[in-house]
Amino acid sequence: MRYAVLSDVHGNLEALTAVLDALAPERIDRCLCLGDVVGYGAEPGACLARLEACGAVTVGGNHDLACVGKFSLDWFNEVARAALLWTRDQLSFAELDALRRLPLTAAVEFCTLVHGTLRHPERFEYLVEAGQAIDTLTACRTLMCLVGHTHLPLFLEYDRRERRIARLLTRAGDLAQIPFTDDPEAMRYLINPGSVGQPRDGDPRASCAVIDTARREVHIRRVPYDVAAAQRKIRQAGLPGFLADRLADGR
Fold it and tell me: Looking at domain 2-246, does it have CATH number 3.60.21.10?
């Protein structure tokens, strides 16, 4: 089986389309989305439709739930809050209902999906510390826990028997092709595919992951897309200009 793992699309249809087109020849069996389909970008409804069309299993992110009043806007900065209020006004009742029904977590085969941390998924905490990773993997009941939210790609291997982090990969050159074992009693894995629609690691290309169970490999992919078109749509929509500017820098 081959799984595509996407996160943090953030209304960027150019980036999402480029990723789905790039993965199309690879015989992907299932698409998994780790939340924040909307927010920041200019085409939230179209992104929801594309993910629905490909049958993606999707969990809710903080931006998704804030659009429907299930997470407080007080947690967002002024720019993000303005984008969320704009996004809410663009979506149909059916699209808002789809966001409202997104679960905080989901289990698919050997994977658990969550936007932030598994201990407190409703808080949407940024998973950036070793202790958080260990807590999340301790709470996880599957081989892998797939997370988003930070917009930064990451692969972490936790040795359950020795209770230590065995591998931590964050550099682009180390993330291209990563082997894993399929023994959940020995190892657990934490994977962040990075962001499709608003990368923050200095690389403006869309980021996603492919999990290949036959080869027992994880691949973090970078896909170029038409950044200028995405920027133009953000500005034309009257959204804060900073949201357009940052796409070119991957920040």
Answer: yes
